[in-house]
Amino acid sequence: xxTSIEWTRPPGxxxxxxxxxxxxxxxxxxxxxxxxARQAHRGLCEAHVGLTxxxxxxxxxxxxxxxxxxxxxxxxxxxxxxxxxxxxxxxxSMSDLFHEAVPFDFIDQVFAVMALTPKHRYIILTxxxxxxxxYISKREPSSRQLLPKARRRVEVIMRIGxxxxxxxxxxxxxxxxxxxxxxxxxxxxxPGDSE
Length: 195
Fold this sequence. Notes:
Elements: E1 14-18, E2 21-22, H1 35-41, E3 52-54, E4 64-66, E5 71-72, H2 79-82, E6 87-91, H3 104-115, E7 121-126, H4 129-146, E8 155-160, H5 175-180, E9 187-188
Parallel strand pairs: 1-6, 6-7, 7-8, 8-9
Antiparallel strand pairs: 2-5, 3-4
Helix pairs in contact: 3-4
């Protein structure tokens, strides 16, 4: 799905969103104004139906929020293989690839597609740094086996959306973020880190 998100359109790339999963759950106040939950609540896509509810109390009262259900879309895994021109791809704009309901084996399949398409640049945002860190530490050796098959290095940027209310969270003050930061070559912070 073509996107107009500014940071997905660096020079030489078309902006794209690729959603091999949809759905999520509220994990922090950084999720209070979730764009994806509002989009999914409109029900414009069959994949979004049944993934949201209206918040009932506090700052979420009357706002659409994800209900914790996550759908895996294996039929969408091959989409990047069909793109001819280089794309800057926001992976799971309507979900969190590192949601606890997404099996590591499915994440392996997402990374395999990325490894096979080195002309694209991939950006993964997560609010689940501990789960991302677990995946990286448990799966890295098997992921390396895929990479030699790629003709060029694959660019995958993994970023942590980190916020509490309207203020940024310091890495040192958050054990989950500190654990994820132990992989500094693989994990960054950037677009969305105040969402």
